[in-house]
Amino acid sequence: MTLTHRTVNALLQDFRSPAPTPGGGSAAALAGAVGASLLAMVAALPKPRASTAADLQLLRDAGERCTALAADLESLVDRDSEAYELVVSAYRLPKATDEEKAARTRAIQDALRVAIAAPLDVMRASNAAIALVPVLQAHGNQNAWSDVQVGLELLRAGLRGARVNVEINLGSVKDATYATEVAREVARLSESGAAGAPSASS
Amino acid sequence: MTLTHRTVNALLQDFRSPAPTPGGGSAAALAGAVGASLLAMVAALPKPRASTAADLQLLRDAGERCTALAADLESLVDRDSEAYELVVSAYRLPKATDEEKAARTRAIQDALRVAIAAPLDVMRASNAAIALVPVLQAHGNQNAWSDVQVGLELLRAGLRGARVNVEINLGSVKDATYATEVAREVARLSESGAAGAPSASS
User: Fold this and answer.
1) What would the pLDDT profile of B63-122 be if each residue is shown by its tens digit?
2) Residue B176, H or E segment
3) A174-179 own/partner pairs: CB under 8 Å, 24+ apart
4) Does residue B130 sit at the A interface (CB-CB below 8 Å)?
């Protein structure tokens, strides 16, 4: 059974248990999924009047995109925990002979890429949802603005939490070109996620 | 059935639906519950060596407190949505006669206090969990530090998201003394929540 088909109560207990999964990576994905879902709700609530057909279409498109991003982030709750277990398994491979050592190193490096791809996708999806906030601000019902603000806080927590999980794995990657590329994308996503939307505390 | 006894998948769908509950207030409580749960997990993982019995006891106490705070925050997911519905019901009371108007005003003011108490309790619990981070930093296993960082991001999102929900209701409160007291506590909780722990992005 996937983590997101457990009850919220059971998943919270799983987070509390000393077992390593689910851990921070899955929690960051969940934060993003809740945040994107709140934005999707607000996109379904147009301004009570004075909306043109074009405005309504923009809002509808933003809502569909938020719903798709929330679904992506929901699936990343599981993907992150699976990727973590892949890394752990690779580290447990035998290393008695040179051949075993080489195979283990390759398996670790491959697993690290999977364990980086999951939180990087959380960052991408959270960032894409944050980029839609101006559409909600312009065309959504102002009575639901507090829901946008909370959604934004959750998406930013997802973005920053996922970043921590990318970087912890990136430290063990041997391919410098790949590591530099990922670090660059992480910096770009963090910057636009922080700057691309009105502050929820203003 | 309570919201937290639904599956995560179903709760995410509820957040996405245009129905006003569950909304941002419940989402903020959930963020806090996940954050406190991650801290409780880390508290169950002591440093591999060099821990005194006193250190271990501090860590155990912090873990028990995080678990209790996570349970409080979990119950606040429902409490916030129930409080919102109380406010909506009060606004729907009849207001044809002066007597009805007075009764409606009293009901609205009473409901607003309930709707303020819920996110204020989310702020208090998130803040209390954030205050335990230094204990985890000093005595917890450093391999789990990324989980503390993600937990901190989620608790801060819970704190800020709950603040938005306190303030939106506080704007309609007529009792100035009570409103001033709440505003003061909100400012104090926000400040210590932001300052009381190492930054997760450093």
Assistant:
1) 999 999 999 999 999 999 999 999 999 999 999 999 999 999 999 999 999 999 999 999
2) helix B176-195
3) A174/A109, A175/A109, A178/A113
4) no
Say yes or no for a CB contact (<8 Å) between A41 and B15.
Answer: yes
**C-alpha B82 chain-centroid distance:** 15
Q: Which two tokens stand for residue A51?
A: 């909306």
CB-based contacts of B166: which residues, under 8 Å, 6+ apart?
Answer: B116, B119, B120, B123, B182, B186
Indicate yes or no: CB of A15 within 8 angstroms of CB of B23.
Answer: no
Enter the ipTM.
Answer: 0.94
Q: Check CB contact of A118 with chain B, cutoff 8 Å.
A: no
CA atoms A6, A75, B20, B194: torsion sign: positive
Bridge partners (DSSP) of residue B140 are B46
**Dist. CA A132–CA A126, nearest whole Å:** 10
What's the pTM?
A: 0.95
The pLDDT tens digits for A169-193 are 999 999 999 999 999 999 999 998 8
Of the candidates B188, B157, B62, which has an alpha carbon nearest to the alpha carbon of residue A16? Answer: B62
Helix (H, G, I), strand (E, B) or coil at A7: strand
Residue B141 phi, psi (nearest 5): -70, 125
